[in-house]
Amino acid sequence: MTDFLELDKLKEECGVIGVYAPGVENISQMLCFGLIALQHRGQESAGIAVLKDRKMQYYKEMGLVQEVFSSEILDRLPADIGIGHVRYSTTGESYVSNAQPLVVRYKGGSIALAHNGNLVNAGEIRDRLEDEGSIFQTSIDSEVIANLIAKNYHLGMREAVIEAVKEIRGSFALVVIIDNMLVGVRDPHGLRPLSLAKMDNGYVLASETCAHDVVGAEFIRDIEPGEIVVIDENGIESIMYDETKRKAVCCFEYVYFARPDSIIDGKNVFITRKKAGKILAQESPVEADMVIAVPDSGIAAAIGYAEESGIPFDIGLIKNKYMGRTFIQPDQKSRELAVRLKLNTMRENIEGKRLILIDDSIVRGTTSRRLVNMLKEAGATEVHIRVSSPPVSHSCYFGIDTPNRAQLIGATHTIEQIREMTEADSLAYLSVEGLVESIGMKKNELCTACFNGDYPMDVPKEGDKNMFEKC
Amino acid sequence: MTDFLELDKLKEECGVIGVYAPGVENISQMLCFGLIALQHRGQESAGIAVLKDRKMQYYKEMGLVQEVFSSEILDRLPADIGIGHVRYSTTGESYVSNAQPLVVRYKGGSIALAHNGNLVNAGEIRDRLEDEGSIFQTSIDSEVIANLIAKNYHLGMREAVIEAVKEIRGSFALVVIIDNMLVGVRDPHGLRPLSLAKMDNGYVLASETCAHDVVGAEFIRDIEPGEIVVIDENGIESIMYDETKRKAVCCFEYVYFARPDSIIDGKNVFITRKKAGKILAQESPVEADMVIAVPDSGIAAAIGYAEESGIPFDIGLIKNKYMGRTFIQPDQKSRELAVRLKLNTMRENIEGKRLILIDDSIVRGTTSRRLVNMLKEAGATEVHIRVSSPPVSHSCYFGIDTPNRAQLIGATHTIEQIREMTEADSLAYLSVEGLVESIGMKKNELCTACFNGDYPMDVPKEGDKNMFEKC
Amino acid sequence: MTDFLELDKLKEECGVIGVYAPGVENISQMLCFGLIALQHRGQESAGIAVLKDRKMQYYKEMGLVQEVFSSEILDRLPADIGIGHVRYSTTGESYVSNAQPLVVRYKGGSIALAHNGNLVNAGEIRDRLEDEGSIFQTSIDSEVIANLIAKNYHLGMREAVIEAVKEIRGSFALVVIIDNMLVGVRDPHGLRPLSLAKMDNGYVLASETCAHDVVGAEFIRDIEPGEIVVIDENGIESIMYDETKRKAVCCFEYVYFARPDSIIDGKNVFITRKKAGKILAQESPVEADMVIAVPDSGIAAAIGYAEESGIPFDIGLIKNKYMGRTFIQPDQKSRELAVRLKLNTMRENIEGKRLILIDDSIVRGTTSRRLVNMLKEAGATEVHIRVSSPPVSHSCYFGIDTPNRAQLIGATHTIEQIREMTEADSLAYLSVEGLVESIGMKKNELCTACFNGDYPMDVPKEGDKNMFEKC
Amino acid sequence: MTDFLELDKLKEECGVIGVYAPGVENISQMLCFGLIALQHRGQESAGIAVLKDRKMQYYKEMGLVQEVFSSEILDRLPADIGIGHVRYSTTGESYVSNAQPLVVRYKGGSIALAHNGNLVNAGEIRDRLEDEGSIFQTSIDSEVIANLIAKNYHLGMREAVIEAVKEIRGSFALVVIIDNMLVGVRDPHGLRPLSLAKMDNGYVLASETCAHDVVGAEFIRDIEPGEIVVIDENGIESIMYDETKRKAVCCFEYVYFARPDSIIDGKNVFITRKKAGKILAQESPVEADMVIAVPDSGIAAAIGYAEESGIPFDIGLIKNKYMGRTFIQPDQKSRELAVRLKLNTMRENIEGKRLILIDDSIVRGTTSRRLVNMLKEAGATEVHIRVSSPPVSHSCYFGIDTPNRAQLIGATHTIEQIREMTEADSLAYLSVEGLVESIGMKKNELCTACFNGDYPMDVPKEGDKNMFEKC
Known about the structure:
homotetramer, alpha+beta, Glutamine Phosphoribosylpyrophosphate, subunit 1, domain 1, Rossmann fold
């Protein structure tokens, strides 16, 4: 079944983790636990690469972390240092060769590399490398980065990494095993998150702090935009390789991508979402009997909206937790029924009620109409949609799979038109200012490009989308 | 990983569905959709049996519905009438031969039978049948019932079914295909639920109304305790085969088993749970800053408690939806970490707060202590446990997998002792009267035996547990 | 790809094995090894049942022995006594419930039963049992036998087995675990083979002696027609339960079914096949340059024919050993090519040669024409077919899957017509007398019914084929 | 079970196929059929790469061809041009990334490359490329070759291929898709075979002619040592890129590797094996009653030996065709039994006979002793081993997995010592001259290095084995 709920969401990007802990057992298992905590960032493939006594091994496969790995496989992957990756693919063709980490051999040994983000100049660099006779075996940015590092090997590996990351533009949170070191890199804008934690006898790098929690590591700090951290037997060294760019943390991590229990750049995601709900209640109040959420992503904002408005939070829609991703292909008629496999209304609880329905975002709008209809059919007298982020009106070039602008309802319709389409009684979005306030940073420390086109760097023209797989 | 959350819950029983709709396409698919909606009632095996032009076929296998069935398999199972079953097994040995529906050949053709419940006299009847030379190939009650029906075939099949169900004692909701009829039976006490719905050109029987919703059928009524319904080309016939027993609907369907969007014997499950939360707030108030739930089953009661107490409902614990049932066997140390794979605290949201933690039930108590510790570690200043059902103190003989009384904390400890074990600041259970009130039936229409030992019929002595597989 | 080679062969029946060796380790593994040796008798499903300390367990599944079993599964099946079965199904519907051994519970405990053969009165008996209210869950004869045993349990199990086998008619080689005994039974005609061997601290029963070899057991003797052997802690007891019938050993075991290294009723299969080739050379000589075989089943007779005729044996056709049973469905054109995936000509070796092509049997004749054409295309100047058995002209009712008489080329065509169809330069079959002589028994000790209609007992009329699955 | 028969054989190398036939349907299926015919050359992984309308796609996976491919997968791979590969890996670590064909992107588009053979200067070239900053993602020679081609892209792709193959040393039969062309290359010594065939509207290149047969293509000629063939819309162009080296066709293709129905460099493999048997009979006659073969590879020579000696060919050992490659790990005792799962003696046929046992080669010698013992135990009075190739005494560097010299019995023992070890009554090998004569080429057109150390080019010193995976 097409997952109609997820159809209307921007797609998750990738997640990365790295562990440096020579002498500690079970590092491969920790990587797996961390990847399970990051699974929401990518469900297509999973992989880990480990270095033990300078020998590199890896395992990666299509599927969820728990489908890909078993105790038996982990036992064959002893580690001093390890990195892991979960991936969401933007294309139908999903070659396992595009799974990460990418492990390559270069002059000085092996490099393993895992990348979350999207380079805007990968094509350019690749062209240049191909001019010199390089070949490419994958369609992922990471291969370009690995080539750049290898080209500079004569500078020593620390310098080689620095030179490489200076050449690339776009969004990136990288974890790299090279030369007995674990290296973490965050792009100069800090578009993608990366944070550092301390564990007994070691360190952990991860896209989100929820991954630190499951390995029992204690959060230290976020990696700074433009920072490289090198972790080896001498401890942690920090190198600021580019401090010329403005900070531009991705808003959508707070809106939808990140887990609510994660802290990104000092802000707890759940708290920002609840705050967004409160501000939304201030900006767009409406008289009603009950605040309900589109599960699960709308819950935090709904609680905030309820708290601010004084209208009680309650349950109007329930999700079937046994509804997997793939299934029997239903014909048109059963498709209509099948949506109820995923989501059902709490009829008796909402009958005769005026509802405020909180969603975190609307991309295409088709789902919203279905939900409004289901709720009314179940007896709701009014349904007022409140969206806890602004309309998405511009494509992302930094690692998020946005449809073409032509398919973004926020780019092509007025809010009143959208309301009509959804058949809601009223509809309102959070303002950009409200979103910024909810996160608690300055506006120019955030990337709000998908809402207002204010990109932190030059981006390709529409139609000229980068040929590389994003991640 | 041992699933520590589910360890502390009574186990789900089975779920059944039946569809009578000659001429309608996709009946097999409907059965599957219905079973997915009932998946929470049994995740071990799934199966369907179908009759088309008087030819019976079936398919059943270990696994979740979506693992067992594919479009290809369903295409090979055209149907006029069909039944389906999902099963939870109480034993480690799970032969596929114990999966249901059971399909047998008898004098007059084929019978297919799916059963939710547990017979207390199955052993007795089997002994008698074996005395006459019968053999048994499974360890499920259903085989005993099929034998009883076949023994009476000479009376005609309607009468044979009536005679058979008069002989069995215990809990049962049955759906049966026999002689071109779909038959539904509910035990004289109505211990297990079964409801009837109407669809275009046909009828649906299901354990819960949520299964009607996904096939687009409209709820008509519950099958009565002691009622047989026979659905065939002449429509529906109702036969009251035993009206001598008191009604004794299972309380635990409302407390934990059933889906919140289902209606059982006229009562919506979510509403009863919310009501239970409200009464709990009246019975056992406590001063606090926030009401949180053990996800997902405590949410409804938590909302009710919050509403009644005026203390805001909020999120303190979050579940990882990608945490599957089986995984890497962790060693002792990683086990401690691994619990966080399943559940994490919303640290920033609860820091410095006094919490009321709502759980629907406590069986062993070990989980409660872990949760209290996790919450305190995350900064909660107080944790008050409120349980939205009474202490479970007696074994169930009617289809629920209760541990021995010795393992039931409610049978062996005082409430103060339990509070000490859980390290909570206070702990209170809902009273039996409160539970009864929340459901909205009379006390003597409900089975409250697991709370007070008041069994609606004679049951085997402790230690003398029926050797048959429950379901 | 349709396997064009096997299309023209009668289908293998089933194979059984039993081991009695309390105290010996690895009995489950031995059963598996034995079943691999018997795999040629059935490739559809495989299973074993074991008794240890009076506890019965079993495992059976669709697939080859090595697909069904693993070390892990065998480790869970400790045994004092065990039986095993491989099955070939004559129908497309292959429910795993029809796999054997059949394990049932009866008054006195458990019975496990594995059966090779086909009962001609199973329907009749089943009707009678159903009249008494029995139900049936499979479509295999074995279930009828188990019921008969259970009906007589009050006589004691030895007597119950005797009474049961006296009631059934047809072909059967049975191995049964009952009441801590291993029981072997052969039908009164001895249609299907069963032999006994001695191992350290135990005994083995098997369809063919090649299974004894792989478990290191030493052949003692064949079970006699009409004999029951009971093996228990007191040793072996032999019971002659029916000595009124003539011996009628199945000829086709020697012609095609059995492995060449097996000894059946005192005759080594390879030796009888070589002898058949020699007699065929005497009966139907022809001038030629080379004797070649249809691999692999024609090789023994070809060596005999070569030896007798003085014309050298050589290789003209070679089989691809990596050609599995299922594959890509080719369109018409690639089907023609695909036959060469299975079999290719040894062009340079046969160019310009006059060939004698030895096949063990011809059922439909289509394959023979293809082979003649392939050989001529490869340069053979003449191809003379010699078949080392007589034309198959009658259906089998004793466990062999023969097509309807209308599809048996030997029933509908003269030998000259068959020669024309195959486009061979000449064609001759072995005579029935020649076949009998090659086996070395008296004609009235063999069942030659498929060649001449001389059935050893009354059989159903054509069109009235027994509804039970054969085996 | 350790496969004791194959333990004593040199391991097969890889097999390649290429098809150029724009407009023809089912090219992917043809590639699969061809790979099945070549499956004996590698059972570890299989893959194909196809070009359709200049778009390259590929699919490769661990496993046999029929395990890797399905109709569904082939349907997704439409082709104008395609190549395929089956692989045998010499190491335990078998990353799918080492499976072939290798598909890479270079300046001008995509290259797909499949390689049979082993480069002796791959390490050297890779070092040089790494000095320039290249990275490597696999451990297969093919990646080196692809890099060399890409480095020369500015010369145009025909020239780039020529330049690349001029740099590599060792054995190679290559098929390459590049720039809408199918290119075939054979190394200057012709160590590994490659042949060309014509089909309707297209051409086929394959390691062995048996692959031509299954796709219905007609053999044209072998590719010459030092030849490149370029097949495109203009037809076939032949380029002799190196005519300075002596021809050195691998003897072992005739002795063991190739299928008997293949023709390699003008010689039919079966005919050369039969001839080897005849010469062996002349060189090493012995008085006996019967000539038998170690199945299947000794059969051709046994037939030749029988024909020359006048002693009849017969069957003494029979192979179980259902014995797969992997199985239950037997303990020591069952290991002894388990050998009989693979091979059994034809006791009655050999009892009291003096046997000549023909094997194609002996590597370690352990198997020979077991066979001699089995045969004597079955009643053979004498067993005389005759080996239809000379003792293997030197390692191969050209694509065959020979053990270290220390493990080659032919390098460390005299023939009399080997006889003693095998417990045979006599033992003789074919002479190098006899082998050369049986093949029918001049000695200096063959590589006989594994028998006499006469390598056609400089090879690494012992212990300095190339780090790349062979193939």
